Amino acid sequence: MKMWSGRFRRPLDPEFERWQRSFDFDQRVLRYELAASGAHARALKNAGVLSSDELISILEGLRQIGRETASAEPIEDSEIEDVHHYVERQLVSLVGDLGYKLHSGHSRNEQIATDLRLYVRAAIDELRSQLAELCDAFLSRAGQAGSFAMPAYTHLQHAEPMLVAHWLLAYVEMFLRDADRLADCRKRVNFCPLGSGAVAGATLALDRAFIANELDFTAPTNNSVDAVSDRDFVLEFVNVLSLLALHLSRWAEEMILFSSQEFGFILLPEAYSTGSSAMPQKKNPDLPELVRGKTGRVIGAATALAVTLKGLPLAYNKDLQETQEPLFSATDTVLALLPLLTGFMKTVEFEYARMNDAAQSGFMNAWAAATYLVNHGVPSRLAHEQIGKAVKLCLEKQCELQGLTLDELRTLNPAFDESFYECLKLNCVLAIHDVIGGTAPERVRQALAVAKKKIESLREEVHAHA
Fold it and tell me: Of 105, 108, 150, 178, which alpha carbon lies 20 to 30 A from 418's?
């Protein structure tokens, strides 16, 4: 029996009935539907609609459905329209017509809105937990990198030397921001639509605050029309996922570049790489390439959601059914990626010697050289021009700045003396970046300690929601 069929004289067209069903994908929220149904049942008992014995029977029926469907195997049932229909039919099969009472004062519109909020909330908690592990992997490798340096790039050209640890901590900053965005999104997700009815509010005197508390929501939603039609939280969540995926893709691009023979900064872990069917020598960066590729899927999901929602009048419309698959796809994609990245970062090998050598060629100490002149009273713009001329002279002589003689340097500016050569050394070049957020070794040691505390705090927040 359909949940809505009373006023209809003819059955649905069979092809249309199969086409419009959502159970194939909305069974993903079955566990949340059962939890929400239990909270609604308790509210019905408090409102005098259910007796104590009836409540016990319904709750036990819901628990039995949960036990029977606990496996990850998809439920195959061609007669079921959606997850709400499935729970009602199963409950009636267990407790008889009493199962129909559960829908008193209830609507599928508020049910799916609640189920999706519970799903997104749980996904946020899982993602933040995985981000803590990923950040910890980056932090551990940053600590192991010690005093080794590498080139920093702008425009993908050699810019200045930086500590390898400083580079790795840049990703920690990105991922911690992603974790913060997820936490901020969770604040808006965590309001309960139950009691909103189909559009204008429940027709029974249900204690909505009680229901919200039962499900660990902050409070009930404030407006029933908005509650049943709102999918802002889905779009916001997937937009956060798209930005997280973008960060993962930037990491992937660097891993691909740095593992190439042209760079040679990293050795790809064999556990996350494959070879070529044609060229026996190849080791390909499959994991980073797939991470880069799957980012498009997540960004595409965000776009699909925005297009679906952009023209909908209030309140519920069947179009909202189309918001579920992009949500599930984006969530699954990112949840699958994060543990793989963590494993990759734990096992990837850094070619520290090569990175360190690369940090000492290509005039990456040029700004340090200009700073030397500034410290000797030369205006910054003039110092910049004079070091630029020194670089041009080096290119003609095919040497680095330290290869110029003092006489040659003094033709550019008499302020040069023997101390100039000391300022060009790698340790000195790193040390002059002595500001908060800079790559000076002491600043990086401080940043490692700060990052460790932030990751510990993230873990504590995740644990609090467990």
Answer: 150
If one counts the domains in the chain, the total is 3
- Active-site entry in 52, 71, 78, 155: 155
| Known catalytic membership, residue 276 | yes
The two tokens of residue 354 are 């090569």
In the residue annotation, 384 being an active-site residue is answered as no
Element containing residue 153 per DSSP (H, E): strand 149-154
Q: In this structure, are 385 and 330 located in the same domain?
A: no
CA atoms within 13 A on the CB side of 407: 0
Residues 258, 374 share a domain? no
Q: Are residue 64 and residue 197 in the same domain, yes or no?
A: no
Judge if 99 and 113 occupy the same domain: no
Tokens of 102: 């559960």
pLDDT, tens digit only, all 466 positions of the chain: 555 455 656 776 677 677 678 889 899 999 999 999 999 999 999 999 999 999 999 999 999 999 999 987 889 888 899 999 999 999 999 999 999 999 999 999 999 999 999 999 999 999 999 999 999 999 999 999 999 999 999 999 999 999 999 999 999 999 999 999 999 999 999 999 999 999 999 999 999 999 999 999 999 999 999 999 999 999 999 999 999 999 999 999 999 999 999 999 999 999 998 877 888 778 899 999 999 999 999 999 999 999 999 999 999 999 999 999 999 999 999 999 999 999 999 999 999 999 999 999 999 999 999 999 999 999 999 999 999 999 999 999 999 999 999 999 999 999 999 999 999 999 999 999 999 999 999 999 999 999 999 999 999 999 998 8
Decide the pairing of beta strands 219-220 and 191-192: parallel
DSSP secondary structure of 254-287: HHHHHTSTTT--EE--GGG-B--SS-TT--B-HH
Answer yes or no: do 135 and 250 share one domain.
yes
**Domain boundary, last residue among 358, 378, 410:** 358
pTM confidence score: 0.93
Choose, from 276, 361, 380, 419, the residue flagged as catalytic.
Answer: 276
Question: Biggest alpha carbon distance in the chain?
Answer: 101
In DSSP notation, 199-253 reads TT--SS---HHHHHHHTT-SEE-S-HHHHHH--HHHHHHHHHHHHHHHHHHHHHH
Q: Do residues 64 and 125 share a domain?
A: no
Q: Are 404 and 372 in contact (CB under 8 A)?
A: no
In this structure, which amino acid lies at residue 102? L
Identify whether residues 228 and 271 lie together within a single domain: yes
Question: What domain range includes position 378?
Answer: 366-423
Are 334 and 222 found together in one domain?
yes
Residue 64 in any domain: the answer is yes
